[in-house]
Specification:
transferase; transmembrane helix; 13 helices; eight-stranded mixed β-sheet; two-stranded parallel ribbon; single chain; alpha/beta; Cellulose_synth
Length: about 450
């Protein structure tokens, strides 16, 4: 590069000196930009996960699982632009993950307050009662039915149960009937009644005006009725549509995520949060466990803010020269950033530590929810701190220390030979339909 610029500078074009000068300046600028773009790539990090060590430490057979609860957020707005069938596949892949069912909660944010989204989610909850036990019984991958049944592979490979073919055929028929029901809901939603939508009991749908409606929460699956066809418990599934009022700019994804954080804190209060878009499905049922390899690492887990999954895409030519698969960004740039200070948050497919978002461990006691206000006098000087204020301040200090340890401290202090989780990277991905799977982890400290 130096030889090139030495030649360009030492051989000016006398007949077009102005154009030559502009071209040299542009070339120098582009060269500088290229150099700056190379710096983050000089120290890429490759990480690996060890699920067997995670299981030996936190999920031993015959003992209660010590894996942390996870709240998963799925965001959607307009079901006519974001097909409900795709959202349903995303939700089904979440409900069927390989993780303790009592520690998984799925929250679907409907920022468009569409009755179509609500009804399709109700149908999804019913179909999940059949789909989830089928996936876990036969170890199905991926666990989004649309993409599982589209796979052009030998689906009998590694299957040894004689009933698999019959059950698969029956499940495929069930899924096709489920698709017909979803399509019927979409066709019905094409024409909105003049008086607005009404619910089954005859009352008006609260979200008929998407910009002026109360908050809505509906628990479809949970402890009270979340059982599959085999009688086993299912993960929680919650529909959330935040309150909207005219005159407020609250129609963006960040506000919807804030609302989900508050709702989930009251209902389940999982220690970790994972947010995905409605067209991103899990193509690995062990994605949550792999995220916990970093979040629950005894050495680095408490210092980890989030783990970012890369994205993988379906339906794109493998030889696409325009890089629509984002390989350069996720496989090169993000790895390089991981070697510096950690990757950027790309807006989806990210597992957060709830404590990092709160600034302290979330608490739900009535005393801790009291506001802590610094009272000032009318002239601007602070009033003398009262005992009540000091008590509140002390309580705030206590919040910074977890009352319920995330890890089994006895195991950490004693040490378990051979069980230490290494700081590594495995693949995790999102396909567009993006999917969260396992390969390429990015950490942020």
């Amino acid at each position: 590069m130096c030889f090139f610029f030495q030649y360009r500078v030492s051989h000016p074009v006398r007949d077009a000196y102005g154009l030559w000068l502009v071209s040299v300046i542009c070339e120098i600028w582009f060269a500088l930009s290229w150099l700056l773009d190379q710096f983050p790539k000089w120290y890429p990090i490759n990480r690996e996960t060890y699920l067997d060590r995670l299981a030996l430490r936190y999920d031993r057979e015959g003992e209660p699982s010590q894996l942390c609860p996870i709240d998963i957020f799925v965001s959607t707005v307009d079901p006519l632009k974001e097909p409900p069938l795709i959202t349903a596949n995303t939700v089904l892949s979440i409900l069927a993950v390989d993780y303790p069912v009592d520690k998984v909660s799925c929250y679907v944010s409907d920022d468009g307050s569409a009755m179509l989204t609500f009804e399709s989610l109700s149908e999804t909850a019913e179909f999940a009662r059949k789909w989830v036990p089928f996936c876990k019984k036969h170890n199905i991958e991926p666990r989004a039915p649309e993409f599982y049944f589209q796979q052009k592979i030998d689906y009998l490979k590694d299957k040894i149960q004689p009933s698999f073919v019959k059950e698969r055929r029956a499940m495929k028929r069930e899924y096709e009937e489920f698709k017909i029901r979803i399509n019927a809901l979409v066709a019905k939603a094409q024409k909105v009644p003049e008086e607005g939508w009404t619910m089954a009991d005859g009352t008006a749908w609260p979200g008929n005006n998407p910009r002026d409606h109360p908050g809505m929460i509906q628990v479809f699956l949970g402890h009270s009725g979340g059982l599959d066809t085999d009688g086993n418990e299912l993960p929680r599934l919650v529909y959330v549509s935040r309150e909207k009022r005219p005159g407020f700019q609250h129609h963006k994804k960040a506000g919807a995520m804030n609302a989900l954080i508050r709702v989930s804190a009251v209902l389940t209060n999982g220690a970790y949060l994972l947010n995905v878009d409605c067209d991103h499905y899990f193509n690995s049922s062990k994605a949550l466990r792999e995220a916990m390899c970093f979040m629950m690492d005894p050495a680095l887990g408490r210092k980890t803010c989030y783990v970012q999954f890369p994205q993988r895409f379906d339906g794109i030519d493998l030889h696409d020269r325009y890089a629509n698969r984002n390989i350069v960004f996720f496989d090169i740039n993000m790895k390089g950033l991981d070697g510096i200070q950690g990757p950027m948050y790309v807006g989806t497919g990210c597992c957060f530590n709830r404590q990092a978002l709160y600034g302290y461990d979330p608490v739900l006691t009535e005393a801790d929810l009291e506001p802590n206000i610094v009272v000032k006098s009318c002239c601007g000087g602070r009033k003398k701190k009262s005992k009540s204020y000091m008590d509140n301040k002390n309580r705030m200090m206590k919040r910074t220390e977890s009352s319920a340890p995330i890890f089994n401290m006895e195991d950490i202090e004693e040490g378990i030979e051979g069980f230490h989780l290494q700081d590594g990277r495995h693949t995790a991905s999102l396909k567009h339909y993006a999917s969260i799977s396992s390969s390429l982890w990015f950490l942020r400290f």
